[in-house]
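Consider the tokenized backbone below.
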């Protein structure tokens, strides 16, 4: 009796080559059903259809080359490396392997012919490929080249590209036999309006481009099949956000009186600075929202140092004066401590209590705070994600403020709102970010939120002097660091990676820290990176803040939250590899005191024209919103630098920069579907976002 035919709604374990272990790993990628394979889309393609002459390649290119091994030997340093020299009639380069087997070492012998695929980088003495994919070729056999582009899928540990390609091949066969299992959910009049092909046709094309495919369009993510799928994904994203807003706006909230009580006047008079017009406008927008009996959903955007904290404090004052509690959530304990110190000082004259909840507290301190959170007394609670843990209860919570919103998902923000709900009453919500996003893009990406912008810095802020230098000048910079530390100031030195990697050619933080320690023996130097335990990171950051460390070598974990007025120099390695908005965030860590401050952007030559334009923008501009606009203009197709820093959701095929022209179409279509076919809208959301927490259905 033949096995029953597979259908798209069947479990992924029904496909050949998937056992329980592979099933668990695929679930991390959101692949649970066979259908999910079809929506696990290639994020790029590699072109193995032609071989490049070795003599013609340059650093930065991804190429397919073929050559004969001329020499293989071991190199010893911090760890063993296998170096394999290959050449053709036009030139030679080195294959560098950091991880290799005894079998590989014995295979890669002089006289053998290899076909290699990888990214070319500048080595110590010649160009090289680090850990390339390679194929050993027989002398008497001509190996055919690929006829089509090869898809490259988002992967996870234990799941190879070979496995993902094999699974997508099987899923495409099931689609052919079970076409009804993948219905069109976008209404026909919308597909016709924008002349889109069917979903099945587009999926087949994107997974397996035919021989005559428009290679350039596919590599750039601009093929009509890709645009069809990107539109549907953006549409699902918009439907989810609009549904979220509609659901929350059906709830009730405590209306907060908008008049100015004496406590507000006293607070403003007690500040050692005058509110800017932009700050005054934004607080009016916030207070107007909170005066309504519907939950406020407002995003506050502002450049580094624009004064968002005082807006948060003022919003909290209005709510506390009305007799309710406020929760302010920040992503790190250091940022929590910083907010607690600043706002406690501001509120002391008004006798308004401020409590702190974080992981690093004694049991007695923690229990005391938890008791205060359930007491009838109005107060401000400041904390990390500890605020939305299950056992934490906050009574009479009328306002939730979330700092650095991109560090928290929509799901976490909703959890905190649910925690503060009483019956059908939900707290108002103010989310803040110091990462400027172009207004037109922000209105689309955060469709569930109203947007306020602080578009002016407080008077007196001295611009940070920004210099772009080759890393060949590193010795000069080290001397400059020594002079600054000798004068009593402090320095950040930021690296894009923690350790040496075969995949990317970056200056690792561990090596830079060792170099600086050897070069500056009189200086107190520390290293902090993302793999450290939170407690260890916090301890080092706190020591730097207290002046116990002169030079902090770090990865981009110091991007937000550290406010050290005594630090006036920021050095950033491999600046050409970081997004402009991220560089702007990092630069904002200095210039917070009375001292003239500097930022040095070190790059590794040669620079592409794109990289030159990007670094020049940062050198010449201090306006974060202008930088964000420029970043969108200059960014390459399919590349959204620093998406985690900007809070943009991770998408399967769409790209907010590349597909910007489709965003208005998706917005209009979302309104159409919610009005006319809400049941179909719900299915579309589940199709694209089913295994993400950050979505809501209609």
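A designed sequence for it:
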């Amino acid at each position: 009796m033949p096995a029953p035919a597979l259908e798209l709604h069947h479990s992924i374990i029904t496909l050949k080559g998937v056992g329980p272990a592979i099933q668990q790993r695929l679930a991390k990628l959101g692949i649970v059903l066979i259908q999910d394979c079809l929506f696990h889309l290639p994020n790029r393609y590699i072109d193995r259809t032609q071989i490049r002459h070795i003599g013609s390649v340059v650093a930065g290119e991804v190429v397919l080359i073929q050559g004969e091994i001329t020499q293989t030997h071991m190199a010893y340093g911090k760890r063993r490396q296998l170096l394999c020299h290959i050449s053709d009639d036009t030139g030679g380069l080195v294959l560098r392997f950091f991880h290799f087997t005894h079998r590989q070492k014995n295979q890669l012998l002089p006289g053998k012919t290899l076909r290699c695929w990888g990214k070319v980088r500048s080595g110590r003495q010649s160009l090289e490929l680090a850990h390339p994919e390679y194929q050993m070729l027989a002398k008497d056999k001509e190996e055919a080249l690929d006829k089509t582009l090869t898809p490259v899928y988002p992967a996870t540990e234990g799941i190879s590209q070979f496995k993902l390609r094999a699974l997508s091949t099987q899923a495409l066969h099931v689609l052919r036999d079970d076409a009804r299992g993948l219905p069109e959910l976008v209404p026909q009049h919308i597909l016709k309006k924008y002349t889109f092909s069917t979903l099945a046709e587009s999926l087949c094309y994107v997974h397996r481009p035919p021989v005559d495919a428009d290679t350039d369009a596919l590599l750039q993510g601009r093929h009509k099949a890709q645009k069809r799928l990107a539109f549907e994904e953006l549409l699902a994203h918009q439907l989810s956000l609009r549904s979220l807003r509609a659901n929350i706006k059906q709830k009730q909230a405590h209306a907060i009186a908008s008049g100015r009580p004496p406590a507000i006047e006293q607070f403003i008079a007690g500040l050692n600075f005058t509110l800017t017009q932009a700050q005054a406008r934004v607080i009016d927008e916030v207070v107007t929202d909170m005066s309504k009996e519907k939950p406020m959903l407002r995003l506050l955007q502002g450049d580094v140092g624009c004064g968002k904290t005082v807006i948060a404090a003022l919003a909290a004052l209005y709510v506390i004066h009305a007799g309710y509690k406020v929760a302010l959530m920040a992503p790190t304990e250091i940022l929590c401590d910083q907010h607690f110190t600043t706002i406690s000082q501001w509120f002391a004259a008004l006798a308004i209590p401020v409590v702190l909840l974080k992981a690093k507290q004694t049991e007695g301190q923690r229990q005391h705070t938890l008791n205060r959170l359930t007491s009838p007394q109005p107060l401000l609670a400041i904390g990390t994600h500890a605020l939305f843990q299950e056992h934490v209860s906050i009574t009479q919570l009328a306002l939730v403020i979330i700092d650095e919103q991109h560090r928290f998902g929509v799901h976490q923000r909703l959890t905190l709102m649910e925690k503060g709900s009483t019956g059908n009453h939900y707290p108002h919500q103010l989310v803040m970010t110091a990462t400027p996003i172009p207004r037109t893009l922000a209105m689309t990406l955060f469709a569930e939120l109203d947007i306020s912008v602080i578009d002016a810095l407080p008077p007196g802020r001295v611009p940070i002097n920004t210099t772009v230098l080759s890393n060949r000048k590193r010795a000069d910079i080290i001397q400059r660091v020594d002079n600054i530390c000798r004068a009593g100031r402090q320095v950040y030195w930021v690296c894009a990676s923690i350790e040496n990697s075969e995949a990317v050619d970056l200056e690792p933080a561990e090596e830079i820290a060792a170099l600086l320690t050897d070069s500056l023996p009189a200086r107190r130097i520390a290293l902090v990176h993302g793999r450290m335990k939170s407690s260890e990171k916090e301890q080092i950051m706190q020591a730097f803040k207290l002046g116990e460390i002169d030079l902090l070598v770090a990865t981009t974990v110091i991007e937000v939250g550290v406010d050290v007025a005594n630090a006036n120099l920021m050095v950033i390695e491999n600046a050409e590899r970081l997004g402009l908005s991220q560089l702007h965030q990092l630069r904002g860590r200095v210039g917070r005191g009375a001292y003239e401050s500097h930022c040095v952007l070190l790059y590794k030559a040669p620079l592409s024209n794109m990289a030159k334009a990007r670094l020049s923008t940062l050198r010449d501009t201090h306006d974060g919103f202008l930088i964000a606009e420029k970043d969108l203009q200059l960014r390459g197709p399919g590349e959204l630098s620093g998406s985690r820093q900007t809070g943009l959701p991770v998408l399967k095929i769409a790209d907010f920069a590349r597909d910007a022209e489709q965003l208005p179409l998706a917005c209009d279509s979302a309104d159409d579907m919610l009005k006319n076919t809400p049941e179909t809208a719900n299915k579309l959301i589940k199709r694209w976002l089913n295994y993400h927490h950050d979505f809501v259905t209609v």
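DSSP finds 24 helices and 21 strands in the chain.
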